[in-house]
């Protein structure tokens, strides 16, 4: 059977899409990039926001209109199972990605059911190398954010063993990977379920021979506090990209409390300042939700003030959308026009801050991993375009000559 696979969502979901495809190949399915040739379609879904959910259902209905068998995988299948199961021929949950080939073979070929013995670490077996490869380190989280539907989809924290992760990373690097994207729902809580932690993992990964860089994915501030000193020490290794992705979500303590984020604005600022004090050229990325049900005008202004103080290199801004089954969905919602206005104000500020941060690199020399013709990523994970072609997969020194809002420009040294 020929299968067309379409994936959406975060880096963790990107890894799952890769795992799904390789699992299918293991069971004799052929992956096709042409939907017209496909006998069936797998869509690996995201459900983090309402707009995303609507897009997922639109794609599912489109595939059905082509008279294709449709398999829905990922977060939508788990979080909104009742809503999607009547549309799909089959569901695959996030923790079943590595079983996709077996599940499809049993269902569509043998026409029989499957006993699912889920060993999550088996997922790692199905990751294939590329120049930039996501490496999932855990599944689920330990948070209880009042607005988040992903917890429903991904469940409680299950960390992969450090030994298995290092073994897989070695395999990927020896097969040509030059950049590892260390990914999880929250990388900072890695190992909390098995008497281990993220700094230990980073240190072991850094000991792998070869020239490569790793980017540490999104971290929850309340969990960073528990490992802060060791984490900063681990970040000093040249193999660790100098990027801190730490979502603030709101710059108002009352809103943070209603969100159940479990840290204060001052605690958050302290973490960022500590990182900046000890890690040179740190790229600080954060996330902000505007229009959360309890966000007053004053609370929104507080958020803007904190952002002006912290000056993030990049801000992922999002209008709050109500997610089914979450605590925040039962709160009184803010008018959509107010959410839109606040989002526009935030967008203007984030552009100003990004441009201001990028300008300070003009005239500096930076180590860059060449990822495409005339394009690469710096040691602190900024995108840079340069004047001459260089071999893809090599590390070069680039002198920065110009900066735009979301990127740098330079010349090969």
From TrEMBL:
It holds the Pfam family TRAM. GO terms for molecular function: 4 iron, 4 sulfur cluster binding; metal ion binding; tRNA (N(6)-L-threonylcarbamoyladenosine(37)-C(2))-methylthiotransferase activity. Residues 359-413 form the TRAM domain. Belongs to the methylthiotransferase family. CDKAL1 subfamily. Residues 1-109 form the MTTase N-terminal domain. Catalyzes the methylthiolation of N6-threonylcarbamoyladenosine (t(6)A), leading to the formation of 2-methylthio-N6-threonylcarbamoyladenosine (ms(2)t(6)A) at position 37 in tRNAs that read codons beginning with adenine. It is an enzyme of class 2 (transferase). Its cofactor is [4Fe-4S] cluster. This is tRNA-t(6)A37 methylthiotransferase. Binds 1 or 2 [4Fe-4S] cluster. One cluster is coordinated with 3 cysteines and an exchangeable S-adenosyl-L-methionine. It comes from the Archaea. SMART domains: Elp3 (SM00729). It catalyses: N(6)-L-threonylcarbamoyladenosine(37) in tRNA + (sulfur carrier)-SH + AH2 + 2 S-adenosyl-L-methionine = 2-methylsulfanyl-N(6)-L-threonylcarbamoyladenosine(37) in tRNA + (sulfur carrier)-H + 5'-deoxyadenosine + L-methionine + A + S-adenosyl-L-homocysteine + 2 H(+). Its EC number is 2.8.4.5. Residues 127-356 form the Radical SAM core domain. Keywords: 4Fe-4S, Iron, Iron-sulfur, Metal-binding, S-adenosyl-L-methionine, Transferase, tRNA processing. It comes from Methanotorris igneus (strain DSM 5666 / JCM 11834 / Kol 5). Signal peptide: none annotated.
């Amino acid at each position: 059977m020929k299968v067309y696979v379409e994936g959406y969502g975060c880096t963790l979901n990107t890894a799952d899409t890769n795992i799904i495809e390789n699992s299918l190949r293991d069971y004799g399915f052929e992956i096709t990039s042409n939907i017209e040739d496909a006998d069936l379609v797998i869509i690996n879904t995201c459900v983090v926001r309402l707009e995303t959910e609507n897009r997922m259902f639109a794609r599912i209905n489109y595939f059905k209109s082509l008279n294709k068998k449709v398999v829905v995988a990922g977060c939508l299948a788990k979080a909104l199972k009742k809503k999607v199961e009547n549309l799909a021929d089959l569901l695959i949950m996030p923790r079943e990605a590595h079983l996709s080939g077996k599940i499809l073979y049993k269902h569509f070929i043998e026409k029989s059911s499957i006993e699912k013995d889920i060993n999550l670490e088996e997922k790692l077996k199905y990751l294939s190398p590329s120049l930039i490869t996501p490496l999932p380190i855990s599944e689920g989280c330990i948070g209880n954010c009042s607005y988040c539907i992903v917890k429903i989809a991904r469940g409680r924290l299950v960390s992969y063993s450090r030994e298995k992760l290092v073994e897989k990373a070695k395999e990927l690097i020896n097969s040509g990977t030059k950049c590892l994207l260390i990914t999880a729902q929250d990388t900072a809580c890695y190992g909390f379920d098995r008497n281990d932690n993220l700094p230990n993992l980073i240190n072991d990964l850094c000991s792998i021979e070869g020239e490569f860089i790793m980017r540490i994915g999104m971290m929850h501030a309340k969990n960073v506090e528990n490992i802060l000193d060791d984490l900063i020490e681990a970040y000093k290794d040249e193999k660790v990209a100098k990027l801190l992705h730490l979502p603030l979500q709101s710059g108002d303590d009352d809103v943070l409390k209603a969100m159940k984020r479990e840290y204060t604005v001052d605690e958050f600022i302290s973490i960022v300042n500590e990182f900046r004090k000890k890690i040179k050229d740190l790229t600080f990325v954060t996330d902000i939700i505007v229009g959360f049900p309890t966000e007053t005008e004053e609370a929104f202004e507080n958020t803007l003030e904190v952002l002006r103080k912290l000056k993030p290199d990049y801000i992922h801004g999002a209008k709050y959308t109500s997610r089914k089954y979450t605590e925040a969905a039962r709160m009184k919602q803010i008018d959509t026009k107010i959410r839109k206005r606040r989002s526009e104000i935030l967008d203007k500020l984030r552009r100003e801050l990004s441009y201001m941060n990028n300008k300070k690199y003009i005239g500096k020399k930076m180590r860059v991993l060449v990822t495409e013709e005339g394009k690469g990523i710096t040691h602190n994970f900024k995108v840079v375009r340069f004047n001459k072609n260089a071999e893809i997969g090599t590390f070069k020194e680039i002198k920065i000559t110009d900066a735009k809002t979301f990127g740098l420009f330079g010349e090969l040294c």
